[in-house]
Amino acid sequence: MELTVVMPCLNEAETVETCVRKALACMREHGIDGEVLIADNGSTDGSQQLAREAGARVVHVDAKGYGNALMGGIRAARGRYVIMGDADDSYDFTALLPFVEQLRDGADLVMGNRFKGGIAPGAMPPLHRYLGNPVLSFIGRLFFPSAIGDFHCGLRGFRRDSILKLGLQTGGMEFASEMVVRSTLSGLDVREVPTTLSPDGRSRPPHLRSWRDGWRHLRFLMLYSPRWLFFIPGLVLMTLGLVAGAALTFGPVYIGKLAFDVDTLVGASAMVVIGFQASLFALFTKVYAAEEGFLPEDRRVRKLVDIVSLEKGLIVGGLLALGGLGGLVASLVHWQTRSFGPLIPSESLRIVVPSATALIVSFQTIFAALFISILGIRRTKETPIDVAASAAEEAAEAVSRAAAGDPADVPADGATPAAPRLP
């Protein structure tokens, strides 16, 4: 079978029959061998029976949520390609051919773009049309190397095997973003075609909650981009702190009537420490996510981890610690020149603050080197092929020993020992 049209459904009795008939008519018109599958998420309004009568296959998905319903439908699909779309009659299921043509041409994921195809009046709330979707799509393009203009279009097609290999995990509305992000990071062929959006045919409010689901999308985009979540803000903070700290170490800095002195130096020190820590968190997240399979391995990060070994990290941290301790010794000498009496903060802090900052960063470097080494420990993972091969070897050995007449391998009734069952 070439195509399965998957529609998640939760109490869509008013529209599901219309959507099923439109999709089936489109496939008949264009000679597409396919089916319509309703992934029902617990409807209580008779949606299931209406869908069956219209010609769809219905599967029940216990786990609640938009993403869970879709993944249940994708797993149950029989087609080589899958096109997913909401069962509220807002998407045009009579115009599936452009998606199928792109998939036949080799695309792994084909996104619809409602902003290019046309949004009918009243089809999308102004908050979503002019703020939510454009802003979240812009952030998605900024955080990830993607050219997709409509990250949240619910009508999209894909190769079933390509998407299943991604191991998508989110169960809510953020599933839409996860599919685009994971496909892009995995190097899949992602394309876009114009599509239309019409007012849905329901009399009840939609399941989507603007602020809650918008935040879930934004949170997902941030968590999947350690570079923008940790590294870039950390690098900016650390750079500003270093520049300001270097300037203030030798004396006050005047900009017009504004005077920046040791109080600003303390703030610059805090910026360096926080920025350095945020950059380390970016590195930790990248290494951990790659090891666990949440994100594809970044070759630049792997190269950096290989270059900056535990030993080198300990050496760099040790040198920074020596510099910090040297500065603290210099501050004691400075105190001695004052006969260990009261100090002038504008003088003493110019020695103490940089020294303390170097000492803090040194320990952060040492701890980071140790932690990255722990994250990088390779674990041996037994695959299904390994299990099958081991079972086959055990079976062959058991049969061989039985043929040789080993009493330990012959059952009391004299029967031939059964080979171990493969998983």
TrEMBL record:
Enzyme class: transferase
UniProt name for this protein: Glycosyltransferase
Domain Glycosyltransferase 2-like intervals: 4-165
PANTHER family: RFBJ PROTEIN (PTHR48090:SF7), UNDECAPRENYL-PHOSPHATE 4-DEOXY-4-FORMAMIDO-L-ARABINOSE TRANSFERASE-RELATED (PTHR48090)
Gene Ontology molecular-function annotations: glycosyltransferase activity
Organism this protein belongs to: Streptosporangium vulgare
Domain Low-salt glycan biosynthesis hexosyltransferase Agl6 C-terminal transmembrane region span(s) in chain numbering: 283-376
Residue intervals passing through the bilayer: 228-255, 267-289, 310-335, 355-377
A matching Pfam family: Glycos_transf_2
Top-level lineage group: Bacteria
Enzyme Commission code: 2.4.-.-
